[in-house]
Write a structure and sequence with these properties.
The chain is mostly helical. The protein folds into two domains: 218 residues, Cytochrome Bc1 Complex, Chain C (Up-down Bundle); 106 residues, Helix Hairpins (Orthogonal Bundle), CATH 1.10.287. Helix content is 64%, strand content 1%. Strands 1-2 form a two-stranded antiparallel sheet. InterPro entries: Cyt_b/b6_C, Cyt_b/b6_C_sf, Cyt_b/b6_N, Cytb/b6-like_sf, Cytochrome_b, Cytochrome_b_C_euk/bac, Cytochrome_b_N_euk/bac, Di-haem_cyt_TM. It comes from Mytilus trossulus (Blue mussel). Pfam families: Cytochrom_B_C, Cytochrome_B. GO terms for molecular function: metal ion binding; oxidoreductase activity; quinol-cytochrome-c reductase activity. Its main location: mitochondrion.
């Protein structure tokens, strides 16, 4: 009887789903990763977002281990890095992982931004703005970390970059002295940069969570740029497998950099201790800053060069407001696809120009490519509007079948309208619709 009574006990716990969906703490992670609804048509370009998460974890762990052996002092910083490379067990690998991990981070972040520009992900404005915040924080973190080995290029790179603060009106000089902690880049500067380099990743983690929170609130974009509520699949196992394949490809290239050619993306001058009395012939940043450095040196005026350089990055905040197309993805805009690849080509070319000496023909090439870089960003909304106008179908001719002859009909129709021949255009459309 007891067993029969318990069968009708309404207070007995009921199984309403898997454990991961009922546990309050695990449910948050489950809804964000395991059972997250994702569009079914996502391609490989969406894997770079998860690769960025992998890069962040690698940098956090390797940086934490390196900090146990690093000494933030101008007389010992360079020697402490040499000690890590030579005396610490697997220290050479740990340092190469952290140094080349920053390069992999920027490879992934540039691919991630390019995907957002091509497929119109920037129309989710909150997600896009937090992503741009993360990009700026990553650039600041990379610059701070580049100064810590206190090599020749680190020291003079820090000197050049921090001097940009002096172009700020009124308070620029005071800010520069405060950042330096003296009258030049010195021991106080190194300690401040090390402290910020250690703390900034925790701010980045918080912004990453906000970025993912707003992304999962509205859902991911897709290559077609259309509403995907009716064509979603769970994140696991459909996209965990794709991401794992991306991790494998990432690891092959990453391990090649770490174990085979660790200096492929580095600068050999940084293996000389910092010498304030000897300026290198060519002071240049890491490769991932080369495009902004090329834009900076393309402007002969110091303040103008700094302002244009920052504009080349801050312009990402304006991208959502510059979208004028009826459709989200560039899959429907052949003209804009050309503009997009011109932008990518100018970015790669500026990166190459930034590594060249400051002499002709590299100066004029840098100036031309800088103009192309900004022009491609400004031409994008114009070409979106032009293409939408070209494909605008006349309302009084909706019965016209869409076939190969449609392009000829539409070209004549638009040409007649362009020269203000409205009646002739209408007559031409009616004539073609009866054919």
């Amino acid at each position: 009887m007891v067993g029969n009574n318990t069968a009708y006990n309404t207070n007995a716990p009921k199984s309403v789903g898997p454990w991961r969906s009922t546990n309050k703490l695990v449910k948050i992670m489950n809804d964000s990763f395991y059972d997250l609804p994702c569009p079914v048509n996502l391609n490989a370009w969406w894997s770079f977002g998860s690769m960025l998460g992998l890069c962040l974890v690698i940098q956090l762990l390797s940086g934490l281990l390196l900090s146990a052996h690093y000494t933030a002092h101008e007389d010992m910083a360079f020697d402490s890095v040499v000690h890590i490379m030579r005396n610490v067990e697997k220290g050479w690998m740990l340092r190469n992982i952290h140094a080349n991990g920053s390069s992999m981070f920027f490879i992934c972040i540039y691919a991630h931004i390019a995907r957002g520009l091509y497929y119109g992900s920037y129309l989710d404005k909150t997600v896009w703005y937090f992503g741009v915040h993360l990009f700026l924080l990553t650039m600041a973190e990379a610059f701070l970390g580049y100064t810590l080995p206190w090599g020749q290029m680190s020291y003079w790179g820090a000197t050049v970059i921090t001097n940009m603060l002096s172009v700020i009106p009124v308070v620029g000089e005071s800010m520069l002295r405060y950042v330096w902690g003296g009258w030049t880049v010195c021991n106080a500067t190194l300690k401040r940069f090390y402290t910020l380099h250690f703390l900034l990743p925790f701010v980045m983690v918080a912004v990453v969570f906000l970025h993912l929170f707003f992304l999962h609130e509205k859902g991911s974009n897709n290559p077609l740029g259309i509403e995907s509520g009716t064509m979603c699949v769970p994140f696991h196992p459909f996209y965990t497998i794709k991401d794992l394949f991306g991790y494998v490809c990432f690891s092959f290239f990453f391990m090649y950099l770490v174990c085979v050619d660790p200096e492929l993306l580095g600068n050999h001058l940084n293996y000389w201790p910092a010498n304030p009395m000897k300026t290198p012939i060519h002071v240049q940043p890491e490769w991932y800053f080369m495009f902004v450095y090329a834009i900076l040196r393309s402007i002969p005026h110091k303040a103008g060069g700094v302002y244009v350089m920052f504009l080349s990055i801050v312009v990402l905040y304006l991208i959502p407001t510059l979208h004028t197309g009826k459709y989200r993805s560039l899959c429907f805009y052949p003209l804009n696809q050309v503009v997009f690849w011109v932008l990518v080509g100018s970015f790669i070319s500026l990166t190459w120009i930034g590594a060249r000496p400051v002499r002709e023909p590299y100066i004029i090439l840098g100036q031309c490519l800088s103009v192309i870089y900004f022009s491609s960003l400004l031409l994008n909304p114009l070409s979106l509007w032009v293409w939408d106008k070209l494909l605008e179908y006349p309302k009084f001719c909706v019965s016209r079948p869409v076939d190969l002859k449609w392009f000829k009909f539409l070209a004549y129709f638009k040409l007649l309208k362009l020269v203000n021949r409205e009646n002739s255009a209408r007559e031409w459309a009616n004539k073609c619709s009866k054919m």
